[in-house]
Design brief:
The chain has about 250 residues and is α/β, with parallel strands linked by helices. About 35% of the residues lie in helices and about 25% in strands. The strands form three sheets. The chain has a six-stranded mixed sheet, covered by helices on one side. Strands 7-8-9-10-13-14 form a six-stranded mixed sheet. The longest helix has 15 residues, at about 185-195. The termini are far apart.
Length: about 250
């Protein structure tokens, strides 16, 4: 399978997978024109849409795309039914599209129904995991979000993190503030700054890299505990995560 990253709106990414027959799958089409243009430019037929959650910048283009491809299945959590989903996913197991087996992970936190799709080596994680960061908690709890990230962290290290936003630069600034002695973060920040200076994308990134640079995947790190400076030492790692997320919200 081949991967195309479509830039949309201010900082969104829409992902497209296609096979040798030029049949394609779109993930989180927040807007339609760029998707339709990409399909036409690359001579691709659209066979399915995957949705991670119900926010408009992830589903806003579905209705317009369906006007051009009215018979395609649109998979997503129950929360996306009124956003164009016609194949609601209730059991978090697997689905097969174009002979690709997608493992479905329920990753609540950002929203309660948020789903993440894994088809080796690609992980389409919407707004759950970002490079060097994670999504805001709008509907779920910090505990839910922490365990959603832990679920992702169990995937193979060569997993490509196909998140939905270009947030890496700001996330790395926060990561440096709470893990100031982490030299890997410092080096990676220089690399990403150069990429962005040349208007190049910072994602997909490797899960193995995220485990080194992402403070939300390093709640166990003693160096982190020395730096977050918020109250007494918590009893659970998810409480460290909650404090980190609060700090990031105010960063």
């Amino acid at each position: 399978m081949n991967l195309i990253r479509i830039t949309a709106m201010q900082d969104n990414y829409i992902w497209l997978l296609f096979n040798i027959k030029r049949e394609s799958i779109i993930i989180d089409p927040g807007i339609a024109p760029q998707v339709l243009q990409c399909l036409k430019k690359n001579n691709l037929s659209l066979k399915a849409i995957l949705l991670t959650h119900h926010h408009d910048d992830h589903v806003g283009g579905v209705s317009d795309i369906l006007q051009h491809y009215p018979d395609i299945p649109v998979y997503g959590p129950l929360e996306t039914i009124n956003k164009g989903c016609n194949r609601p996913i209730i059991k978090y197991n697997k689905i097969t599209i174009l002979d690709i087996v997608f493992k479905i992970l329920h990753t609540p936190g950002h929203t309660l129904g948020h789903l993440t799709y894994y088809a080796m080596p690609y992980l389409f994680c919407g707004d759950t995991l970002f490079s060097a960061g994670c999504g805001r908690i709008f509907e779920g709890t910090p505990q839910q979000m922490y365990y959603s990230l832990q679920l992702i962290a169990q995937l193979p290290n060569n997993t490509l993190i196909c998140c939905a936003h270009e947030y890496t630069q700001l996330n790395l600034k926060f990561a440096r503030s709470v893990l100031s002695k982490n030299q890997y973060i410092k080096q990676y920040q220089k690399k990403i700054n150069q990429l962005r200076l040349n208007n190049q994308a910072s994602v997909p990134s490797l899960l193995s890299i995220e485990k080194k640079i992402n403070p939300f995947l390093r709640c166990y790190d003693n160096a982190l505990e020395l730096n977050y400076r918020l109250g007494n030492k918590p009893n659970h790692l998810w409480e460290i995560f909650a404090r980190l997320r609060k700090m990031k919200d105010q960063f």
